[in-house]
Design a protein that fits this description.
Elements: H1 3-15, H2 21-31, H3 39-45, H4 50-62, E1 66-69, E2 74-77, H5 79-109, H6 112-115, H7 123-129, H8 133-154
Antiparallel strand pairs: 1-2
Helix pairs in contact: 1-2, 2-5, 5-8
Length: 156
Amino acid sequence: MSENLLNSNRQSSQAKGNRGKIEIIGDILGVCLAGDAKRTHIMYRGNLSHDMLKTYTDELVGKGLVEIVGNKGQFKTTEKGKEFLNHYGKIREILASEISQQIKTIEFENPAGTRLMSLGMSQEFIRKVKISADQARDIMKGMLYLNERYRAKNEP
């Protein structure tokens, strides 16, 4: 898996706020790919508290996804961990393409002038703020994400 894909996964995870366990594990495994990641490096690059770092590294070592190498306690992603990252990357790509398709559908169904009004924004607000097409797309992505989270939370 390329370093660019790992970095984009990490950035998008951090940008949206709360990450799930799988995303955190993916971030840690990505940091440990080079095989010379120390705990502090993992903590800062993975955006983890010290307690979370301890919990996750212990679990990942126990499951054989990372191993401790060298006498300085450096972590390295194992072959099993690399396989996890490969599958994780494919899942993220699938989800990203599905969200992209949903956005294209919404953009097709709603002309540019009414996209944001469909979210409950008034025409007056849209005129005052002067939102670009890219910003409107980002707002739509955010709304789709929140809608999915709401549905998932309220489904039995």
